[in-house]
Amino acid sequence: MSTSSPRRPTIKDVAAEAGVAPMTVSYSFNHPSRVAEATRARVLDAAARLGYRPDATARALRSGHARQLGVVVGEHLSYLFDNPQAAQFLAGVTDVCVSEDLGVVLIPTRGDASDVDRVLSAAVDGYVLWTTVADDPVLTAVASSGRSAAIQGGPAHPGLTCIGPDDRTAAAAVAAAAVAATTVAGPGPLTRPTPVIISFPLDRRRTGGILCGRELPPDLTDPSEVPFPVTGARLAGYRDALTDAGLNWDDVRIAVVQRNQRELGQEAAAALLEPLDGPAVVLAMSDELALGARAAVDLTHRDVTFAGWDGTREAAASGIWSVAASLREQGRACARAALGESSTAAQHVSWSIVAPHPR
After folding, report:
1. pLDDT tens for residues 74-101?
2. How far, in Å, are 51, 195, 197 from residue 212 at the CA level?
3. Domain spanning 167-324 has what CATH number?
4. pTM here?
5. Out of 38, 109, 264, 318, which could bridge 257 as a Cys pair, Cβ 3.0 to 4.6 Å?
6. CATH domain 1-53 topology
């Protein structure tokens, strides 16, 4: 018994069925204004009877438009669905794609030599990049591709639209709020909290561990010093706030985690707080990490104030200060920029400080 698939109908088959030239069939699908309405209706009826559909790949090659946006991700692809804020960002991209009748292509990068070829070979009209490191070769490749592109959070790169909040200013504001909420006034001098930080990775190696402020480069916002620009800017903001509060940045303990995962925040908080006495403030670079830290401290009933990032309802309900800067709106802005709807100048999005609900 033959297992071969039935032959797919061709444009010539439709032309013969409709009694027109093959070019008329092509125009009926691709340039309908060039065909009389009655003729086009006859062609579409013939195509429906035969089960004919235009070849999308061939159409894209002819038109030069794939009708798809590429989303370049330096994380495991499941991160886009497992992490609530990454999922919000992707939802923002797809909001625009739905309104513009576009598809989405998810393009993972692994930090190896194949990244550039994988990204550039994707059949897409533009690129949306998740934040990456300053020395990522994909940045230069995308910027030189002739396709519009935008990156969330940075790094800033010529030819790319960089979209995100002013991380340094926002980090300083949320840290100042958390420190002020933890400072205890008594009959004697003010009791200042001991600050600790749970940080995103510093570079592509994602090396975890605990270090002190003095072990970090003096200029945290220099991409060559801290390759992940979001990490560098938020550390700089925390340093600004702690220094302004009269605290010694050099002695601040910092736990660098490999991934933005709640369980890693819990482990980091336990390690940071274990040797400390008295009130403390935990400055985490996301609500997920702050919620993990909250779970660790809940086991010890210690006097600790928390700051996170993302402005989630769960964080506010758990007593966590946070920065709200809608990642869904950033996803929409990146998608619009990747469609060439804006200049390549950096675009700062609005942010606000979210105070925790009383516990």
Report:
1. 988 899 999 999 999 999 999 999 999 9
2. 67, 11, 10
3. 3.40.50.2300
4. 0.82
5. 264
6. 434 Repressor (Amino-terminal Domain) (1.10.260)
